[in-house]
């Protein structure tokens, strides 16, 4: 699987997501501009000592991701502005899971273009959003659950 973070802003969130990717064998893609440097000490600290287990790609723009991973209309997008719930998606081994920046979520144009494959994580309406690292973990593990879980030691 692949996790794509579009313009992430907070180094510890991305570091924690990298650790989730390391634990699950999921590829991590970061779309610039980033709110930090990939050499940021807080990013590295949050990823602990698992960076050698993370297949991470930094893309200068959205087109670079689509060039590498293929048709974005087949991907899954996550936003609090979707009526569909993330458990309704049918994830596969090569699924691409796309998340937006911490402060504003997915860019509005991207969300509008791919609304048919956009999903939300249910939460109390008084809460604007969940932490990005938590959201990624929730979705990645649901995708793995649907595939009867991948185990890195097998």
Task: Provide a short characterization of the protein structure.
The protein is α/β, with parallel strands linked by helices and 154 residues long.
What does this protein look like?
By secondary structure, the chain is of the alpha/beta class. It has one domain: SPOUT methyltransferase, trefoil knot domain (Alpha/beta knot, 3-Layer(aba) Sandwich), CATH 3.40.1280. It contains 5 helices and 6 strands. It has a 6-stranded parallel sheet, sandwiched between helices. The mean pLDDT is about 90.
Coarse shape: globular
Secondary-structure arrangement, i.e. CATH architecture: 3-Layer(aba) Sandwich
Radius of gyration: 14 Å
| Helical run tally | 5
Number of domains: 1
Query: What proportion of the residues is helical, as a percent range?
Result: 25-40%
Arithmetic mean of pLDDT: 91
What is the CATH level 1 assignment? Alpha Beta
CATH superfamily: SPOUT methyltransferase, trefoil knot domain
CATH fold type = Alpha/beta knot
- Kindly report how far apart the N and C termini lie: 17 Å
Low-pLDDT stretches are none
Elements, N to C (H/E): EHEHEHEEHEH
Q: Which keywords apply here?
A:
single chain, Alpha/beta knot, six-stranded parallel sheet, 32% helix, globular
Task: Lay out the secondary structure.
Blueprint: E1 2-6, H1 11-24, E2 27-31, H2 41-46, E3 56-59, H3 62-69, E4 76-78, E5 96-99, H4 108-113, E6 118-119, H5 132-146
Parallel strand pairs: 1-2, 1-5, 2-3, 4-5, 4-6
